[in-house]
Amino acid sequence: QVQLAESGGQVVQAGASLRLSCATSGSALRSYTLGWFRQPPGKEREFVAAIRTSGHTYYGDSVKGRFTISRAYVENTIYLQMDTLKPEDTAVYYCAASRAVLSSIRDPTMYFQWGQGTQVTVSS
Question: For 40, left (φ over 0), alpha (ψ -120 to 50), or beta?
């Protein structure tokens, strides 16, 4: 079983930056695609970003150019650097692990393990 634990969510003002962390194991970083999703209040879970074992990264259209996903093998952690935050970025952010092929990387049903989530609130 893959352990995933998010942290770093907080209340920030629009335009600010924030970095989320997802602690996992070294084997997970080497074996699975790891992704970030978010779920705004009353809405469906939305793909944010993913990083494959190859190191290739993928982003949702609404965050492209503002968010950056990365991984650090030394810390067994993936990060989501979020810049120029907007009120519409307010959501619970989850990290998740997948064995999905590239065509399914944005599909939350293809992820088999999820963290508990961390709340990000962006005030206007």
Answer: beta
Interval 47-72: pLDDT, tens = 999 999 999 999 999 999 999 999 99
Query: 52: number of CA atoms within 13 Å, CB side?
Result: 13
Residue type, 24: T
Q: Which residues contact 86 (CB under 8 A, 6 or more apart)?
A: 14, 122
Query: 3-class secondary structure for the chain?
Result: CCCCEEECCCEEECCCCEEEEEECCHHHHHHCEEEEEEECCCCCCEEEEEECCCCCEEECCCCCCCEEEEEECCCCEEEEEECCCCHHHCEEEEEEEECCCHHHCCCHHHEEEECCCEEEEEEC
